[in-house]
Amino acid sequence: MQYLLGIDIGTSSTKVLLLAETGYIVDDIDRLYDFEMPANGWTEQDPNLWWQAVREIIPEMLQKHNIDGKAIKGIGIAGQMHSLVMLDAEGDVLRKAILWNDQRTGKQVDEINEIVGAARHIELTSNPPLTGFTSPKILWVRENEPEIYEKCNKILLPKDYIRYKLTGEYVSDVSDASGMGLLDVKKRTWSEEILKDLKIDRDLLPSLVESVEISGYVTKEIAQELGLAEGTPVVGGAGDNAAAAIGVGVIKDGTGFTTIGTSGVVFVHSSKPSTDEKGRVHTFCSAVPNEWHLMGVTLAAGSSLQWFRNRFCHEEMAEADQIGVDVYKIMDDKAAEIKEGSDKLIFLPYLSGERTPHLDPDARGVFFGLSTIHEKAHLIRAILEGVAFSLNDCLSVLRELDVDAATMMLTGGGASSPLWQKIIADVFRCKMQTCKSNQGPALGAAILAGVGSAVFKDLQDGCEKVVEIKRVVEPSESEYANFYEIYKSIYQSLKVEYKKLSKI
Q: Which residues are catalytic?
């Protein structure tokens, strides 16, 4: 039997997944770790935490299943996008990685827009510069830690640091590089104009490959340490969402996925690099060679429901403990008793500001239409519907760009709610599906490894062997279109007031 490894370098944990050539998921193992917040709005993490996790998990996995390292035919790597890793000439980490959710770079984003021009930046990179992206982090280090920048020999993304440790190669793939703010996404190469404008030396950046291409081979030293065979191929891999798309079979036009995790993502595959000139959604290179994907993000998806649970559902939590079920199941059942529209109650899930389509850090959550008839169950259902409306904002922008999905996979923790599945299907007016496996980026990385190492014939073959549909939810006629129109108008009415409120 031949096997593949998929590695996912996440913000809170690293996961390694073992996939058999038949498409059967043998096992996955996680290692948890923390990130640091050295100042308000700052988030950092030691890259050695990721490498230590990989060093521990792979030997444990092989030993647990009594697998000879020679049976591992390929390794794929996925991971958190945008985070900045800086290495010196010896390949040692110069400072802790500045993470994707770090917000210190507002000044640098303004500088990039001034130097490059906001419209020109979107034209060149298919995206506006954001505080989460890598390029403003590079400028921040150059301006605030010049001694670190002076020593910098290579700039990498998290998964690419793991690639370097495995293979000794400085390489990234085009899907992950798309989120740096330095890539010409349409041409799938570094933008010489952006690099010149921002005075960033091209030699600091890794070389680029497609996600299924072999990027290097496991060195003799590392092979001996981890129990692998020397020369095991490591493929390009992908950024977390691009890899997750492979893991649920989203590899062609007309397909997409929606994730309800802490935040929410709407992701649609596209064979052409459509770009939103207003910068409301991202256009990135797909893990499918020479194709793309568009995606929008809502910041408080599952976290909106989690907030309500933690603050107002203590009775439900006690009941769940007593009968041995998940409290979200009880909340779901109560919300299901309320009719669609929550008796004219609408929730805006802007508890953490909003990204798509408003790019408004000052936006805040709202229950609109509260009256004496509303009970806790109404508020729960309104949250489910409000998050669906926010996700529909993302999909609506994609549809404006003529990028749509006839079928949408639903993933993440929220995908386990039958009610939420149905609400999203009705709001999107789109067939929703869930997978038997909800393994995310690690599974996609393993499939990519299978293609690069010729265990799978191509991505279609790999996805057919691995991806199994668990449930299909068809959309029904509903009143949600009317509620959605009101939902959209509420933000427009409040956006000036949000700004006033932030200044008090």
A: 240
